[in-house]
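Listing S7. Sequence submitted for prediction.
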Amino acid sequence: MQEIPKGANVSLTALSEDAGAVVVSLGWSSASGAGDADVSVLLLDENGKVRDENDFYFYNNPAAADGSVQLLGKVPTDNGDEDRISVDLTAVPEGVARIVVAASRYAGARFGDLDDLRMTVADRSGEPLVGFSIDDAGVETAFIFGELYRRGEEWKFRAVGQGYETGLAGLATDFGIPVLEDSEGPEEPEGAEEAELAGEGRPAEAAAPAEPEQGPGAAVAGAEAPAAVPVAEPLAGPAAGPAPAEAAAPAAVPAQTRGRSPRTTRKKVTLPKVAKKSLAENESWSQARLFPVPSLKSDREREVRATSVLLSVMAQVPEFGRRLTAGFGAPAGRMQTFTEVSLPHGDTPRRPDGVIRVERAGKLWTALVETKTNGNPLKAEQVQAYMDIAARRGYEAVITLSNDVALEGRPMVEVKVDGRRKHKVSLWHLSWAEVAHQAQLLIRHEGVGNAAHAWLLQELLEYLRHEQSGCHGFQNMGAAWVPVRKGIEDETLGLGDARTVEVVESWERLIRQVCLRLGGELGQKALPVQRARRGSDPQARRVASADRLCADGKLSAELRIDGTSSVIAVSADLRTSKVRTSVDVPAPEGAYPLVMVKRLLKLLDGAPADLHVESLLETGPGGGPGSGPRGTLERLRPEPGDLLPADGSAVVGFRLSLLKGMGSTRGNTESGFIRSVDDAVERFYHGVVAQLAPLEGRGGRRG
């Protein structure tokens, strides 16, 4: 991968023969694990302005109808978060000269508070082509990371690194998008005035142009009369009748749209969370299902059925098929799927479980699919054979599906790549838990094109959740779990035992799956928090965690719900057989101690009575932060003053914790460890964290 400095540019065509579609990644990290930003993409014409409402893509307008741009969302990395954007350069309209990639922060947060700001561009196969790091961020609340632009018949990339102190509003205004104030409350009634905001947004620093040939459209600020971009429906009122000045003005982008449903003319169908009353005579009757599973007897039958069910729904529900394949470099286009395809391979033909083919603008993207169910592992020699077949036959990717969850920085199976082959094949992995997560996001929160598509996704979810499907996600802590746990209980486990690293890896997979399940239920991303610095070795981090496991007998992790500042800590103590979930709540500044304790207990009125509440003191016995009085919620409700220290020490916050008995087996049965961790996090979020929503502001959402 080529690294370039700020202001430099490079031809994508010169870096790869497969740069017709690219995946742009924006990454960052923060010491607290709570830092976040939102990406946005603007398509500009030769004058440096958006053309119409379809040229601005952000969290409430994530995809272009023609498939040229799609925001793929965040993925956790070993050091922070990474936001990915799929750009099909072959589908970009002729009138678009530049594609600007930017990010913005919210609630006054600055980019100077984030570390490792970075943008990379990879080709269709996933091969990184060019990277650019920003090391001079300060007070800016929005940043243009870089841009893709045309030069004749080719596309080039320029590292921009230009910051704005006026946030997304100032950035959008400079490119011809009027931004309107939008309160967090209900929409204004008919006739309400629409006040323009951020009309004079200007960059905090100017980026030096890298080429004299950029033309007039390359400037950030430009034409006197910018075109407005109505990416959301206008507020009701003046549009209903002519007005002297405002009647001709098009709708503008609301400055604040988070925490409420996007106002859009595109109707989306979601299914109600509460099921309709059954017409069955008694509860023993089973509802008829499109994808029945009780007849499945063998692993082979489960694999064939699961592959056919998944691939057929992907082909019939465009939003779902696109969601699963966009991250693999597939374009948005007509998708067809096939099962049990026979392909020549030496003397014995191979039969991959499935094939995916996507056609876009006369070009074909293809992938082989290998499926495992019921906890069966992928076989390296089998995947290797499919990689070889894909390379010879011109397939772009091999996709594996299993109950296992992939870890960042390492493949599910080791394969050898012949560097002499001109055609490159990417190896990708999906967990069945991730498939269920994406289906649930669509039918419960984001919506699909019509009711039939929503029903198909619901039937897919019912199939995946059935005990006979074999598609239950990560459900086995591995062979090392029992001996490691027994070694910790007996205090016979020594440092450097390789089995402890296996247990740490299984723990990371479990936490990633917990995040998928919780995020699918809430409709928000839930991400593991990694506090290691970018570039650190993931394996070295796991070895260090394994040493801590040997020393104190605990497995620990942190996770964060997107849109909240709270970090949920999860700890499994193998010595006491307890799972602890906890969250720290800062004390409001300037509040009287007893008043803030009473307010906290009032917020926790619906929390479990066995919740442990501990006051956090400004200074402890050693001079650092210390622990103060503590007690269960049941005991503290009648006596809130018991949380205040007798010596008058300043209280800086509170730690809320729940304890749960830990499962004894390594699997996902009712008595299993995996189930106990899943249940502990779910109970803690709904019973405790959700009660604290007023502290996050407007229901815990960013606004």
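Caption to Listing S7: primary sequence and predicted structure tokens for the chain studied. Residues 422 and 646 are 74 Å apart (CA to CA). The longest helix spans residues 498-522.
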